[in-house]
Protein 1
Amino acid sequence: MARPSRNLDRALIAAGQALYPATGCAGLTIRQVADAAGVNIGMFHYHFKTREAFLRAMLQATYEDMFAILPTPPSKVVARSEASLKELVRAGLGALGHWAREHRTFLARLLADCMGGNAVAREFFAANFPRHLQVMGSLIAAAQASGELRPMPVSQAIAFCAGAISLPLLAVGAVVDAGMLPKARQRALESEVLSKAAVDQRIDLVLVALSNPAPASRTKARS
């Protein structure tokens, strides 16, 4: 007997990704996913067995798509010029910032599920979020060691980046999505805070703030 096409599991995951921001882990049902994917429930059980296994696969697939666009950590780059290390940081911030922008409702729901104590969401978060933080930490530490970025604890630098770049997407995005403001104000916020250009501007500002004011000194980062 031929194995059913893997396109079906991809279709189910895509359907789950589209539904998840509105339902969260607790509200997402097998029937909803199968109907949205145009797949019968038997095929859902064939590929994923249980709803919890599907949720794990769907969250993991979403994360791996994001992780794949991060730049290569400096330790894995052969003969990379020190002058490009800050640009690697920029590339990493851009990858994460624009992914968060494009998936802000998904990310907001995931954080809400984690805060609400959902076991699948919390296990996923604990297993995966340190991965991209480690990549960004390596990029920032390398740029600090080269003297391009000012020395400070890497965790402080990461927190500053996240607070300046991604947090406005979640906070302002939640206000806009809730429809609590006049339409004209919502449109202004979408342009001034939530747009691609706005994210790029915040990345520029972050890099100005993190840059070493005296790069010629080649100041080393604190250990």
Protein 2
Amino acid sequence: FVELINGCGMKFAVWHDERKGRIFTSLSSNECIKLEGMPTKLRGILHCDTEQSVISLWETFRSILLHFETNVTGGNVEEKARTFFRTFIELGNSAQKGYGKSRVTPYVHIVAHHAPSKHVQFKCLGWFSSQGLEKKNDVLKTLHHTKSNKWNPVADALKLAKRSEVVSECTGPRNYRKADDEYWNGGRIKECGNEWQRSAVIPPTTVAVKADLDK
């Protein structure tokens, strides 16, 4: 499997760490694009009972993403997204790990149930970079690991994020009214500035004090 990924034009490795267990190389967005030709190379190395379903899952997911990126007419891809979701759930009934209802992440849920309708609404999801969503993810993750209520972390994180948005939108700089016209327009502000510069340049004088140790 590692050789197949490396054959797609990227460096990938899996190794064992004493503290974290089995870990692997993280792939960037550009490297993930190179994996488009991966499904056709998986035939013959996957488990026979789930090979076709796994390959279909990869191909369907890539087809959905390509539709979101290139289709500008707002075509509906909801049925294909639901097919991807059902395949992901059905694979959970097999002996293979990584699938099923317990493995459904927020991203999988959004792709299957929300992204198709938003694509129809805005004509093309490819016009949006989703950087705001990634930023919100980072904020929520920080809240969860530092200040979150562990009994209901999702609700607590959303409330804190919304509260920060309200504060950032409502609080703004106040206008300063120059009440003392003589100070601002009569030259007093310049005189005060010159005095401050002189006091900064002239060193303070020291006075020697002789102590009478006998007393």
